[in-house]
Amino acid sequence: MGSKQVKIALRVRDLDRSAALYLRVGFREIPNDEQPNLRYLTHGHTWLILLDLERHGYHTAEEERGVKAGPLGRGFVMAVPVPDLDEVHRLWRAEGLPVIAEPEDAGWARTFSGLDPDGYEVTFEQFA
């Protein structure tokens, strides 16, 4: 088995807004001038590939109709480790994004959960 990376792709309504938000919580962008309808972001060994909902291709017309009918993100949760949970919580609030679980001590880490601009659930974890 070759690559040891996990890659997650999310279709988003506003590629620039989503990329900027994830960069602010600690992701890094891999430059990619060849494909303007997506952004490659990394967090450790994990890749987050943001795909433009309208302009990035689909495998089939049925897939496109289903994705666009939504809701985006139902049942999907991404957990992201962060060095400062309170800072990310303030960012989420400042961006006007929903917080669905306020910061709390989960025993193994401090966590909070919110929805990104497209409704994807993100749980942030700050380990002791």
Structure description:
By secondary structure, this protein is an alpha/beta fold. It has a single domain, classed as Roll (2,3-Dihydroxybiphenyl 1,2-Dioxygenase, domain 1). The protein contains 3 helices and 8 strands; from the N terminus they run βαβββαβαβββ. The protein has helices at 15-24, 61-69, 85-94, and strands at 6-12, 28-30, 38-43, 46-52, 77-81, 99-105, 110-115, 121-126. The strands form 2 sheets. The protein has a 4-stranded mixed sheet with strand order 1-4-3-2, covered by helices on one side. It has a 4-stranded mixed sheet with strand order 5-8-7-6, with helices on one face. The longest helix is centred in the N-terminal third of the chain and has 10 residues, at 15-24. The chain is globular and about 45 Å long. The model has no long low-confidence stretch (mean pLDDT 90).
N to C succession of SSEs:
EHEEEHEHEEE
Q: Count helical runs.
A: 3
Please give the largest β-sheet.
Answer: 4 strands, mixed
CATH level-four homologous superfamily name: 2,3-Dihydroxybiphenyl 1,2-Dioxygenase, domain 1
Number of strand elements = 8
Helices and strands, with pairings:
Layout: E1 6-12, H1 15-24, E2 28-30, E3 38-43, E4 46-52, H2 61-69, E5 77-81, H3 85-94, E6 99-105, E7 110-115, E8 121-126
Parallel strand pairs: 1-4, 5-8
Antiparallel strand pairs: 2-3, 3-4, 6-7, 7-8
